[in-house]
Specification:
Largest sheet: 4 strands, mixed
Helix content: 55-70%
Strand content: 5-15%
Number of strands: 4
Number of helices: 13
Structural class: alpha+beta
Order of helices and strands: HHHHHHHEEHHHHHHEE
Shape: globular
Distance between the termini: 35 Å
């Protein structure tokens, strides 16, 4: 019986590794930039209400505040956030050029991508039977690991934020999700960076008003706190990452930890 269980687990792990290698190579967009006719609803939404569609694209991806996205986030930043998270092909140059040349097509493509691949909280779980199921994980609310004025807790981060705030803010985003440092330096303001961290995988308590006011009123302190937060929590897992389901103790298969809902 033990030999059978060990053999079954090895088989599942082998299938898991093959799927991981396949996922690492699958970095194509699910639809082309001109594939608007594939989904008429997103096409009409993007062409008729471009600012609303841009805000909805990011809100649907990471459940961030729609009003904040409408006022503070542009199409280039949304495209970069989604592309870097899914590891889709492209560069930071294309993240700028495509939305500038054809903003409606770009937003429509992003909406289709999020619908096809799931939100930032989705994972592809391999069950004990080898079946791949996309699940939506829900994290509890968290508090910041340090206060806004706790700069003395990490003097290095404080000095970095005070001497070169734009570089420090860019480093925050790169350490958080591996996105391009140069793009972050020129395109992502501290308000946007704080919103991405707080609304994203870290799921930190707060509001969109705080994301705007804190960096505006205490610029260096806000960036310094973001540096400390990324240092404590580390980089985030990409959406759609493959997770193997472990059987519950004393259970041969079909067990494992439950997720909140299936995508």
């Amino acid at each position: 019986m033990l030999r059978s269980l060990v053999g079954s687990e090895m088989c599942i792990r082998d299938r898991y590794q093959r799927r991981v290698r396949g996922a690492a190579m699958a970095m194509q967009w699910t639809s082309g930039i001109c594939g608007c006719c594939g989904d008429p609803r997103t096409m009409c939404f993007a062409f008729c209400f471009l600012p609303c569609a841009t805000a909805s694209a990011r809100s649907r991806f990471d459940s961030s505040n729609w009003c904040f996205n409408f006022c503070c986030v542009n199409g280039c930043v949304v495209r970069n956030i989604v592309r870097e998270a899914y590891h889709n092909e492209g560069t930071c140059v294309s993240d700028i050029c495509i939305p500038c040349c054809c903003p409606c097509c770009s937003v429509a493509q992003i909406l289709r991508e999020v619908i096809a691949k799931g939100s930032a909280n989705s994972v592809n779980m391999i069950t004990t039977t080898g079946q791949v199921v996309r699940m939506e994980t829900v994290e509890g609310s968290n508090l910041w690991s340090s206060e806004l004025t706790s700069c003395c807790d990490d003097c290095g981060s404080c000095l970095y934020a005070c001497c070169c705030p734009w570089c420090a803010n860019s480093s925050v985003m790169t350490k958080y999700d591996g996105s391009n440092w140069w793009f972050n330096c020129f395109a992502k303001q501290p308000c946007v960076a704080q919103s991405i961290l707080r609304e994203g995988k870290y799921n930190i308590d707060g509001t969109c008003c705080g994301d705007v006011l804190e960096p505006c009123c205490c610029y260096s302190c806000a960036i310094s706190r973001l540096l400390r937060e990324v240092k404590v929590r580390g980089p985030v897992q990409s959406p759609g990452a493959l997770v193997i389901q472990q059987p519950a103790p004393g259970q041969r298969g079909g067990g494992g930890q439950a997720f909140t809902r299936q995508a």
